Amino acid sequence: MNTQFIVQRLVLSVFVVLGVTIAVFLIIQLVPGDPARVSLGLQATEENVAARRERLGLNRPVPEQYLSWVAGAVRGDFGSSLITGQDITPQIVQRLPTTLQLAGLAIVIGMIIAFPLGIISALKPGSAVDTAASIISQLGIAVPDFWMAILLILLFSTRLDWLPPSGYTAISEDFKDWLEHMILPALTAGFISASIQTRFIRSAMLETMRENFITTARAKGLRERTVVLRHGLRNSLITIVTILGLQVTALLSAVVVIEIVFSLPGLGRLTLDAVLDRDYPLVQATVFVMAIMVTAVNLAVDLIYFLLDPRIGSAR
Predict the structure, then answer these.
(1) Fewer CB within 10 Å: C terminus or N terminus of the chain?
(2) Contact 272, 256 (CB under 8 A)
């Protein structure tokens, strides 16, 4: 593998994360209100506020505050919550697995739905399957995620009583109970993701199946399954990987709403609570972690591009 290509992507990823942290840090600096006064609440006398600002380092220049925060973040030390006074890092470590589990299940569900529908629709345009796939795609795109979540709760929890409407059990405690609580949230995110994936997979496969090398493969007498999977799908993978990468990053933002609806103790819920409480250090920490996850996904997509087509790494 082209080492220079990997190094370039890694360096670019570092700059992207730094850019996000600078933007978030500066935006929080512009938010009205004094973090020291917010953390003290009813005890916010001028003397207490001054002492609190001194302890939090808020009286230092902004660039110095930022460098100090970044130095701690690199070590995994995000400081303490303004509201609870608890260390932030353990809170993130506790909440992050729930978000990753939800996103992972949603991606799997989305792919299970999207790949068969997209491929069959491309092979049989205008058929009943193609029409059904189009309707499902339009439905998933048109219906907001929170409304989709409510509909699924009404159907599977209230009416059929098959699955719990909310709550969470750690996977290490009871796998069956964990799966029962995660199916509806993952199905909500996965169905919406599948709706978009299906359209792109269909479009990519349609374009590929019209190429001359597909005609040549068929003329050689290869089985249709081999033509579709080895030649058609394989040559469509770059487009498909692109949309998958975009969907993963979109899921990381969608989980905020889904975690609230289903009462899941994930990173999205933690971020929203921090914003509502004006817990600035906690907001910075959660956004930093999310930025790393999104950047990691984009980096993985770039590396997969190179594996699928090594010419990409040598392009200038």
Answers:
(1) C
(2) yes
pLDDT digits (tens, 9 = 90+) for 120-178: 888 888 888 888 888 888 887 788 888 888 888 998 988 888 888 888 888 888 888 89
Q: Which band of pLDDT confidence, cut at 50, 70 and 90, is reported for residue 310?
A: low
Same domain, yes or no, for 121 and 67?
Answer: no
Angle at 112 between CA 200 and CA 289, to 5 degrees: 80
Query: 3-state class of 41 per DSSP?
Result: helix
Closest alpha carbon to 178 in 168, 188, 163: 168
Return the CA Rg of the chain.
24
Pair (191, 206) in one structural domain: yes
Domain span at 68: 3-88
Q: How confident is the model at residue 316 (pLDDT cuts 50, 70, 90)?
A: very low
Q: What is the pLDDT of residues 238-250, one digit of tens each?
A: 777 777 777 777 7
Q: What are phi and psi of 111, to 5 degrees?
A: -70, -40
Q: Can you spell out the DSSP letters for 255-314?
A: HHHHHHHTT--SHHHHHHHHHHHT-HHHHHHHHHHHHHHHHHHHHHHHHHHHHH-GGGTT
Alpha helices (H) along the chain: 3-30, 35-40, 46-56, 62-74, 88-123, 128-142, 145-152, 175-209, 212-219, 224-226, 234-261, 267-277, 280-308
Q: Of 316, 313, 315, whose CA–CA distance to 5 is shortest?
A: 313
User: Which two structure tokens, joined as six digits, stand for 171?
Assistant: 């996977």
Domain boundary among 42, 65, 88: 88
DSSP category for residue 131: H
CA torsion sign for 13, 19, 24, 29 is positive
